[in-house]
Amino acid sequence: MKYKRLLTIVEYLWKYSSKQHPKSIEDILQYLEMHQIEGGLKAVRNDLKFLTSGESFIKVEAAQSGRNQYIDYWIEDRFFEIHELRYMMDAISSARFISVKETQQIIEKLKAFVSENEAVLLENQLVHTFAKIDSPQFANTVQSIHQAIAEKRVIQFQYGRYSAEKEFVLSGSPDPKTYLIHPYGIIWNEEMYYLIGYNTIKEGIHHYRIDRIRDIRMLEQKFAVQPGFDINKYRNLLFFMFGGEESSIEVIFKNNLAPAVIDRFGLHADIKRVDDEHFRLITRAIISKGLVRWLLSWGADAKVVHPKRLVEEMEKEAERLYKQYLGERD
Questions:
Q1: According to the 3-state scheme, what is the secondary structure of 183-248?
Q2: pLDDT of 44-82, one tens digit each?
Q3: What DSSP string describes 270-294?
Q4: Fewer CB within a 10 Å sphere, N or C end of the chain?
């Protein structure tokens, strides 16, 4: 009975107490009585003496009450601060691969780390700009990939996308392809999870949106990461998760785009002033449709000067846009 009483006191203080809302020994006695748990004033005082000592795993704080002759009690150390829980809640809310239902379930679990009074401060008020995506196999897929990365084991899966008819179609259908991948790591981009790995058939580094992976299997076969491969460097070279060939690039921007360029490439980016209105960026990137579209998004405020291949890609895309919107008027 002693241990049941002790656990009930901890439960009560965990759920209802905080520094701003402390509980008196009278409050605790009423709670015990409501739950039909025996415990007199002396026994509860002894329990609280233990909980406020250094021997207790759950540390209860105590201070003289201004309301009566007793001391008030509350649980201060709750593993996470309010703002830390808010970070996690916002990340979960903005993650497109976590369904609306699962998002709410996880948030309710996070609220259990604080008192009910503090949980009110954790109401989810984040407004995210993208719709959630329902991926029924996602949790199992992510866990399998993490395990395969840790154990350096090859994985096998199928991959697909939604069609204009909103049907999920596997690549290669009606005879879906099987992918054999050495999983190197997972990155988060644009609220989505991506697997980075070596495709054994195409013999190159590729990335795959994890919510599009189906029927994943870990094989017994082991692998070794390619010498010199740096997943962080690879991530920094990507634009909108399009694959391609890595190259040095040189772009001239209008000065008003300096904040956007620094946000994308960091303060250590190789940026030099060209004249009073322009600066030059020299960096390395993967030349892809993603890079072309990112550069075109700045219109005439960005001009590629190197390499020639990227200049030609920009010209082709600009011509396609011209023909699409103005070509029929000529």
A1: EEEEEEECCEEEEEEEECCCCEEEEEEHHHEEEEEEEEEECCCCCCCCHHHHHHHCCCCCCCEEEE
A2: 888 888 888 877 777 888 887 665 566 888 887 778 888
A3: EEEE-SSSEEEEEEEEEESHHHHHH
A4: C
Q: What tokens does 17 get?
A: 């107490």
Axis-axis angle for helices 308-325, 289-296 (nearest 10): 60
CATH number for the domain spanning 215: value is 2.30.30
- Which helix (H) or strand (E) covers residue 73, if one does? strand 71-75
Looking up residue 69, the CATH number of its domain turns out to be 1.10.10.10
Least confident of 146-160, 170-184, 185-199: 185-199
Handedness of CA 184, 186, 190, 192 (dihedral sign): positive
- Is this prediction's pTM over 0.85? no
Q: Structural domain tally of the chain? A: 4
What does the pLDDT average to over 302-313?
93
Distances (CA, A) of 64 to 13, 50, 75, 99, 198: 17, 17, 15, 47, 63
Shared domain for 67 and 42, answered yes or no, is yes
Higher pLDDT, 79 or 125: 79
CB 107, CB 94: distance < 8 Å: no
